[in-house]
Design goal:
Elements (H helix, E strand, L loop, with lengths): L1 H13 L6 H8 L3 H7 L3 H24 L5 H22 L3 H7 L1 H7 L1 H20 L8 H20 L9 H16 L5 H5 L1
Length: 195
């Protein structure tokens, strides 16, 4: 939607607080009445900007989840795709990034659908791993929640390059792969080895 794209640009340049509904109406070439037909207020516009960005990110995560690769590798790719997309979105949006961190509650409300999609994708990958005999997961729901919240917890350090004293995706990836492989690995039991 043109209004959302114009609002994103204005928010990125001027900040959310400094941008008015009138600014958005003028920049989009729409009248204020038209703008208020779609949005109750500037907060609604801001949420629409965040939701559109998160919808794009969800689509990119779906592409990774659909890849024909081993579940362990797919899970690692989902994690790094998530972190990279969040970083790109925040850094691309200039002044908007300050608003992102200042009003995290509003962002959390807007990202409910994104989080739901990500949880569904992680669940599918874990189920694939279990079916292939790669993962041994006693409690799928708890495992998914732990992975999901761990990744969310890494967002801000990853965005600012503070993960492991500035470790980027290249240097942290082997460690994350090792953690995922060991945490989810199916361990052969002595009676299985004998058979």
């Amino acid at each position: 939607m043109q209004i959302v794209n114009v609002a994103r640009e204005l928010f990125a340049k001027q900040g959310v607080e400094a941008t008015t509904m009138n600014d958005i109406a003028v920049a989009s070439g729409k009248g204020r009445r038209t703008l208020y037909t779609y949005f109750k207020n500037k907060d609604d516009v801001y949420c629409a900007v965040i939701e559109e960005e998160l919808d794009r990110m969800s689509e990119r995560l779906r592409v990774v989840a659909a890849k024909n690769i081993e579940p362990e590798d797919k899970l690692v790719q989902l994690i790094y795709t998530h972190l990279s997309l969040i970083r790109e979105a925040v850094l691309r949006n200039g002044t908007l990034r300050a608003e992102f961190f200042r009003d995290i509650w509003r962002v959390e409300q807007a990202r409910k659908n994104f989080d739901k999609t990500e949880v569904e994708l992680i669940t599918k990958v874990l189920m694939q791993g279990i079916r292939k005999g790669k993962f041994d997961v006693a409690n799928i729901r708890l495992s998914v929640d732990i992975i999901h919240y761990c990744v969310k917890g890494l967002e801000i350090p990853y965005i600012y390059g503070r993960l492991g004293d500035g470790m980027g995706a290249g240097s942290s990836r082997p460690l994350v792969q090792q953690i995922i492989h060991r945490a989810m690995a199916r361990i052969e039991r002595p009676d299985e080895i004998m058979n």
